[in-house]
Amino acid sequence: MEMHQVRYFLAVCDTLNFTRAAELCHVSQPSLTQAIKKLEDELGGDLFVRERNRTRLTEMGVMTRPHMEQIYSEMQSAKADAHHFLNLTKAPLRMGVMVTIGPLRLAPFLAHFKEEYPGIEVELHEGKEEFLLKRLMAGSLDLAVTAPLAELDAQFAAQRLYTEKYVVVFPPGHRYENSEKIRLKDVSREPYLDRLSCELRDMVMEVCEQKDIEIYATYRSEREDWIQGMVMARLGVAFMPQYSIVVAGICSRPLVEPEVSRQVQAVTLANQSRSPALDTMLKEVRAWNWTG
């Protein structure tokens, strides 16, 4: 069965006239009639009864029509999707973002990208790095923005975006306001809010133990917004990536001795077949001024 046969069949169903159906399909009547005959031969029975002044569907034709309509509808949808995909109109792009990466650096880039390519529909998904990389390998993500602690496997390709330092966040009026920088030992015995999702959490805790710095968490949460909300409620201070701060009024100072930072990267599969939307996104990622 070929798609033009389906189209000719449905045209005859709509007009109940082979001549008018041929005109609608922009083919000669003999060509349309021959295609319908081949379709009937393939299906094993007549689809139309042609009488002197009228054409009508046989019982088999009536039964066949809904299936043909579904086939034709799905074909049209597939053609439309392919057109959108190739021409960057209604083109989907699934981006994963590591849960601890804030919007302050990514949001301006995404706003620029939307302005330049309004037809690309970016869908954001949040999760920890391991989860995002698994979804990338499974094909349910096109791109992941992460801050890897170790070198990625060869199956991944990474584009460096920006370096992000860690800061100490605290409420207005705190004694830290008079400091330009805050040493890790200055946080010893300070009420502390523990970010359970932080990928550098274990490293910081290990340094504290080595240097005999006492940090006790009064509250713990996997939610970045909750940690910042509790800081503003004066429940304690927290360590946080500098571009993850989203709560208005919260104060911060650079963390030093040791200074802690991470590299934020855009990660894709190294040998994947890239969609036009993903190729466009990676081109813009490379061109964007991430330090601006």
* Largest sheet features: 8 strands, mixed
Indicate the proportion of strand residues: 15-25%
Query: What is the CATH architecture assignment of the largest domain?
Result: 3-Layer(aba) Sandwich
**How many strand elements?**
12
Count of discrete domains:
3
Number of helices: 9
Shape: rod-shaped
CATH superfamily of the largest domain: Periplasmic binding protein-like II
Succession of helices and strands: HHHEEHEHEHEEEEHEHEEEH
The proportion of residues forming helix, as a percent range, comes to 40-55%
Radius of gyration: 31 Å
Structural class estimated from helices and strands: alpha/beta
Poorly predicted segments: none
Distance between the termini: 58 Å
Q: Within the CATH hierarchy, at the fold level, what is the topology of the largest domain?
A: D-Maltodextrin-Binding Protein, domain 2
Mean pLDDT: 89
CATH class of the largest domain: Alpha Beta
